[in-house]
């Protein structure tokens, strides 16, 4: 369990625009998310927003380990009983984790969520809070402005929703358009753009890829509402205040089976035979086309989420494993299971590996990728023992197949 000791650098609440205030938590030390499933090298933030119009609404909370300090901080911003509405846009505990602490202080206050949210909140917390179910197009008056609810199922859970604040033209997007990125500058124009887009793309690749068709239709639905958009306030990472449409356009591009001119070689190895193959193959592709980006990863020594982001950017990925116990090495097996679930589309693959005795790994890699919907360029390349001249020649022929499939001609 994380500690909740105050760290040296606390992000204080700040005004986002007019009566909208950020009241979240920057988590500088987080390095793993979703259990151990997602690496967060740059930490994260749990963004919560307090909207103090004639009526006061609170959008999302923070993760449970920070619940007490969150409620204490909120109380320094406003007497809690003045909060009229709690908008619970997503039940995952990184946003709802402080709700039990808050609701102890505000029994009976309405909690707005989707129908799926109700199921999930009850499943998580087993409380009969005053849930108010909303659907797309429902409105909640805050006095001079109103919140418009927009259900966003599968972006990225069935219960997810967004909210639009009229007058300030802010879209509170919850997980969508977010990044796991702790920064003292919570605005998109104040941070390192390379870091920002590295984290935004990694987030999309590892979390939203399976739901790309829904990303497109949801964005089209929001655009069809013709609402002016001055700011996007996600529940992780920076607020998009400078040209907020830029991240919407990126999402539209990323959702359309995005790829760059990149070939990625991913392998695992026991005694360096498969590594030797991987390096020869990578070198062969690089020699055939100096324009193509070629990246090489030993999956057992690499961060799987970072490598998955490279897979996401690639037009072709080559997978290599030696044979062990009639199968493939475990780091590769785990990676492929995650890759299968993400459902990448329109990517080519080829497989390779060395073996000493039985040699099942290449067929197994081939079958896993094929059943995951990948287009396999050929049957794969097996070599025995440590490659010398003849197996290296086979690697060269293997590279020719790949270059032909990718229309690379040297
Ligand atoms: Fe950031 Fe789906 O929780």
Brief characterization of the structure:
With 410 residues, this protein is α/β, with parallel strands linked by helices. The protein has helices spanning 67-77, 93-96, 99-105, 115-125, 193-208, 212-224, 245-255, 273-288, 304-313, 330-342, 361-371, 389-405; strands spanning 14-17, 20-22, 25-27, 32-33, 38-39, 44-46, 49-52, 56-59, 85-87, 110-113, 130-133, 139-141, 146-151, 161-165, 170-174, 231-234, 262-267, 293-298, 316-320, 348-355, 375-376, 381-384. Strand 12 (139-141) and strand 13 form a beta hairpin.
Radius of gyration from the alpha-carbon trace, in angstroms = 24 Å
| CA(first)-CA(last) distance | 55 Å
User: What are the low-pLDDT stretches, counting only 5+ consecutive residues below 50?
Assistant: 1-8
- The structure class reads alpha/beta
Mean pLDDT: 95
Structure report:
The protein is α/β, with parallel strands linked by helices and 410 residues long. Helices cover 34% and strands 22% of the residues. It has twelve helices and 22 strands. The strands form five sheets. It has a seven-stranded mixed β-sheet with strand order 1-2-7-8-9-10-11. The longest helix has 17 residues, at 389-405. The radius of gyration is 24 Å and the shape is elongated. Residues 1-8 have low confidence and may be disordered. Bound molecules: MU-OXO-diiron (FEO). MU-OXO-diiron binds at residues 90, 92, 94-95, 156-157, 175, 235-236.
Comma- or semicolon-separated keywords:
single chain, 410 residues, alpha/beta, seven-stranded mixed β-sheet, six-stranded parallel β-sheet, disordered N terminus, binds MU-OXO-diiron
